[in-house]
Amino acid sequence: MAFVAAAAGWLLRLRAAGAEGHWRRFHGVGLARGFLHPSATVEDAAQRRQVAHFTFQPDPEPREYGQTQKMNLFQSITSALDNSLAKDPTAVIFGEDVAFGGVFRCTVGLRDKYGKDRVFNTPLCEQGIVGFGIGIAVTGATAIAEIQFADYIFPAFDQIVNEAAKYRYRSGDLFNCGSLTIRSPWGCVGHGALYHSQSPEAFFAHCPGIKVVIPRSPFQAKGLLLSCIEDKNPCIFFEPKILYRAAAEQVPIEPYNIPLSQAEVIQEGSDVTLVAWGTQVHVIREVASMAKEKLGVSCEVIDLRTIIPWDVDTVCKNADPFSLGLYPTGKMKEETNNLY
Amino acid sequence: MAVAIAAGKVWRPNRGLSQAAVLLLWRPGARGLARSHPHRQQQQFSSLDDKPQFPGASAEFIDKLEFIQPNVISGIPIYRVMDRQGQIINPSEDPHLPKEKVLKLYKSMTLLNTMDRILYESQRQGRISFYMTNYGEEGTHVGSAAALDNTDLVFGQYREAAVGAAYAAKRANANRVVICYFGEGAASEGDAHAGFNFAATLECPIIFFCRNNGYAISTPTSEQYRGDGIAARGPGYGIMSIRVDGNDVFAVYNATKEARRRAVAENQPFLIEAMTYRIGHHSTSDDSSAYRSVDEVNYWDKQDHPISRLRHYLLSQGWWDEEQEKAWRKQSRKKVMEAFEQAERKPKPNPNLLFSDVYQEMPAQLRKQQESLARHLQTYGEHYPLEHFDK
């Protein structure tokens, strides 16, 4: 068990080192030798800035939902929002800067198409955005709130945890805010620093009453976002911002749903279970192939998709139910047993 | 023109923020979805003109350095209809409510008062765990409620959610107002700021009703704010605001009625600050003699009580007398006691219900916990007071 954990850790570092090659050579010399060197090229500098990288792995074109179109992540979000506002006349979208199209272009064109009473800016106040959204949802209308960066969700934490999550429970189902969905750009981009990079899902992962969903790709995003909007519980939908442009694949034009609280096994394996969500799914896929290639280890790769309530059954089907994460099964289990 | 007058009032130092009870902020005609943006007249850009062009404010230049002095000595005046003896002061403000309606106001306030006494006592006897009384503030609840339609939405707290509900009601053309009640202490929360600002910018048909009763548990208003109460904040957000005598049920009624009419017709928020006094303790967990004098409390109880003032009015109209008072006291006591005893006889909800309504559907993990509790109770039920719970 420790052996496998160590091996996987080594693999992750090896993969990261591939990109960090330049830096590692100058380790221990203070500033990188090329820093002030006049012959350092622009490409070198740009490459040195990109310390972390991954390759987005698109899924095969979906056939069962009709005509598809190549969309990147923000376009797939726009498509989901467009479908929602078309289907549901009570649906409204609001948040900071959503009117002109949003800082990540997720709401481009929607205000012109659906009107300024349905797609509108709010003042700069996250607790107000979420509280206001709760109020809309309480009347039965569909509220789609945007928090401009997940890093800013904390002023709304009280509204989410103390109000939204408990609305139905505390009123014995007399009232609810199930038609509230909060969407927010999430995760690192490399240059986001403290307040444009955070992944705060863990803070919500133990809050009963809400659902937290994180897609890995445009196709997943549209289906999961539509499910969140239609779900009868308040949902938080985190959108990996680094994938907004970098991830593009064929996405159905018509609405479709991907179920919540269902993890997806995107690669079968017999030795180790790897669980990830969002951007990290693509990293973990690479780790799985490296494990196969360098260690002869067969990895099961699972995209968790919904963080709460999460799909315990799928994750624990092959893994030992008493300890999650990396755990040897099959061939590796035999070998580690022999170590002890 | 009206803008200049309003602006002048704000800029002149050492004057109150308003001379009238209701601040008149110029509004560009009918509101609503058709004409909601922008508010200010667009100035023509002209380099020859020395008028300010800033998008952020509509105001004139001034070349003298002066800070606006907040006026807390002579604050926003308090609108009232009746004096302390229940006599109408200005006949043109008399709502001329029919006898049945006024009797209903009186009976609601006194029934509430009776319920408060009985439930406070029952907490002292250990029959309920906790209670908060309304002593002294009955006029604010009943006066405002009487001015609403029974399809209007009431939020007791949850200021931002109230604004969202009002926005949805506006979109649905529901002809409903949302009213949100909160105290002067709750008005310090960020929620209030967010609620006011959203209501104003998003043009929501909402009444913010602040009960300023002088205390937030033990914290007096002098430690809660330094400005001129809550009403003075409204204009800062662009909200129509008024301060009323919360112990004058007709004043509360008139203000709420007019605010309701205009909020729905014009799709804009209203702020009513009802001045009153919390005669009772904050709750059954509080003993207010620790932070205020008995004399102060007695003054309000004896000299300025909403129920007394309305009773004086009823008596002067010949619509009430001592006999009816005695009979009604007896009847209201009986009513409350019967309801209380009926509630006391009910068993507590089944422990099963701990797990439902967390989500609309019960997720697998919660179902497992529910089943686990059921099994536990099957084996160890004797150690729990299950006889008090519904089967």
Automatic annotation (TrEMBL), chain A:
Signal peptide per UniProt: 1-19
Cofactor: thiamine diphosphate
Domain Transketolase-like pyrimidine-binding: 71-246
Lineage: superkingdom: Eukaryota
SMART domains: Transket_pyr
Top enzyme class: oxidoreductase
Reactions catalysed, as given in the entry: N(6)-[(R)-lipoyl]-L-lysyl-[protein] + 3-methyl-2-oxobutanoate + H(+) = N(6)-[(R)-S(8)-2-methylpropanoyldihydrolipoyl]-L-lysyl-[protein] + CO2
Record-linked Pfam families: Transket_pyr, Transketolase_C
Keywords: Oxidoreductase, Signal
CDD domains: TPP_PYR_E1-PDHc-beta_like
GO molecular function ontology, one term from the record: branched-chain 2-oxo acid dehydrogenase activity
Entry EC number(s): 1.2.4.4
An individual GO BP term: branched-chain amino acid catabolic process
SUPFAM superfamilies for this protein: Thiamin diphosphate-binding fold (THDP-binding), TK C-terminal domain-like
PANTHER family tied to this protein: 2-OXOISOVALERATE DEHYDROGENASE SUBUNIT BETA, MITOCHONDRIAL, 2-OXOISOVALERATE DEHYDROGENASE SUBUNIT BETA-RELATED
Name recorded for this polypeptide: 3-methyl-2-oxobutanoate dehydrogenase (2-methylpropanoyl-transferring)
Lineage: Eukaryota, Metazoa, Chordata, Craniata, Vertebrata
